[in-house]
C-alpha cells in the first residue's frame, strides 16, 4: 500500500494519495484544485487515479475533486449525509455512513462524523493484503494533532445562527461513536496542520494516533468523564477569526468549483502597454515585492501580495472575484514565477490572473503614508483618525494600541462600512504585529479609496516605543 501526504504550507492543508501497488489503482482524498502534483505522483509510482473523494464541504480552499475527476476519468465520491441543505450540487457518487470504497486490495470505509460540518465524513483505511482491520484514519477536520475541527464556521462563514452549539455537541458524539472506538494503534492523518483557521491549536506534526489523542488531547478528559457541557465550553472558547472569503468557498464547493482544464500561458506585458492598462483601470497589479519595497513606492491601486508563500491566503483577503472582474497582472521574475503564483491562487478560486510583468519601470510609484508611534496620538487628536488592528482576535485581546478598533485582515475588505467613508478624508491608521499583514490590508483599503496610514513597526514597534516611555518615568520615580 502507498499512502502519501501532499501538504500546502500556504493554506496548512493536507491531501492524500492512497494506492494499491498490486493493481495499480489509486484514490485521492481532499485534493486541491491545482492537480499537477497528484498526476506526477501517480505517474511516478505507476498508478492510475480511479477515484477521488473528500471529507466535507471545505471552507478554506476550493476542492479539486471535480478537476481531478475530469482530468483522469476517475469516479468522484462525496458525502450524501447532512440533510437536504448539505447536498452537493454536482454529479458524483454519494457516500453514506458505513459505505466502502475499494481500491485494489485497499478498503476505505466512510463514517459520518458531523460536528465540524453536518455532512462530514472520515475514512478508515484497511490494507487487505495484510489485515481485515483498519490501520489508518483520514480524519478530515474531525481530529487534528492535538485539536479538533471548529464547529462554529457555519455561523462565522455560512450565515448560520447559533449552530455552533449543536455542532459542538455533534462533535462530542462523533468522537464517542467513531473515533474513540478505534484501536489505539490506528494512525490518524488530518486534513490540516498548524496555521489553519479550521481549529484553534493545531499541532505541527503531520500525523498522530488514536491512542495518543485519547491520552493527551485537551478534549480527552471531557470524553472520559462524559462531560459534554465542559467540552462544548472549551471547544468554542478562543476560536480564531474566520476569513470572509470562507463563505464563498462554502458556496462554490457545495455547488462544484468550475473545472479549469488546461490553462493558457500567461501573457507578458511591460512598460507603456502596462501603464496604459493600469491608468485606464483595466487591470489590477499584484505587487509581489517585500513590505519595505512596497512602502517605499508602489503603483496606485496595486494590491500587495508578498511573494507566493502566502499568496492564496492573502489574495483571498483582498480580492473578491464575485465583485471584482478586472484581470490581474503579477510582478514576477519570469513566466515560471508567474505560473507558480497562479498555481497558488486558483486554490482559493481566483482565476483572473491574465499576465505578468518583470519590471515596474515606466510606472509612477507612490510611497505609502506612514506614521511613527510617537506621532500617533497627535494625528488622532487632530484629524479623528481611526486606528485599526488587523490581527486576529486573540492577538488583539493579548494587547493592542489603546482605542484601536479590531478588524481582522481576512474580513477588512468586507467590512469597510465600519471605517470612515473615503470621501471624508479621515485617516485610517492600520497595524498588525510586525507589518506584513498590515501592508497587504493597507493596499486593499487604499484601492477602495481610503486614506490609509501605516503604523511604523506595527504593534511590535508601538509596544517597544511605549516601553521606552514608561522606563524613564519608573527611574525618575525611584530616584524621587
TrEMBL record:
<keyword id="KW-0378">Hydrolase</keyword>
<dbReference type="Pfam" id="PF00581">
    <property type="entry name" value="Rhodanese"/>
</dbReference>
<dbReference type="InterPro" id="IPR036866">
    <property type="entry name" value="RibonucZ/Hydroxyglut_hydro"/>
</dbReference>
<feature type="domain" description="Rhodanese">
    <location>
        <begin position="381"/>
        <end position="471"/>
    </location>
</feature>
<keyword id="KW-0479">Metal-binding</keyword>
<feature type="domain" description="Rhodanese">
    <location>
        <begin position="279"/>
        <end position="306"/>
    </location>
</feature>
<dbReference type="InterPro" id="IPR001763">
    <property type="entry name" value="Rhodanese-like_dom"/>
</dbReference>
<dbReference type="InterPro" id="IPR001279">
    <property type="entry name" value="Metallo-B-lactamas"/>
</dbReference>
<dbReference type="InterPro" id="IPR044528">
    <property type="entry name" value="POD-like_MBL-fold"/>
</dbReference>
<dbReference type="GO" id="GO:0050313">
    <property type="term" value="F:sulfur dioxygenase activity"/>
</dbReference>
<dbReference type="InterPro" id="IPR036873">
    <property type="entry name" value="Rhodanese-like_dom_sf"/>
</dbReference>
<dbReference type="GO" id="GO:0016787">
    <property type="term" value="F:hydrolase activity"/>
</dbReference>
<dbReference type="GO" id="GO:0046872">
    <property type="term" value="F:metal ion binding"/>
</dbReference>
<dbReference type="InterPro" id="IPR051682">
    <property type="entry name" value="Mito_Persulfide_Diox"/>
</dbReference>
<dbReference type="GO" id="GO:0006749">
    <property type="term" value="P:glutathione metabolic process"/>
</dbReference>
<protein>
    <submittedName>
        <fullName>Hydroxyacylglutathione hydrolase</fullName>
    </submittedName>
</protein>
<dbReference type="GO" id="GO:0070813">
    <property type="term" value="P:hydrogen sulfide metabolic process"/>
</dbReference>
<dbReference type="Pfam" id="PF00753">
    <property type="entry name" value="Lactamase_B"/>
</dbReference>
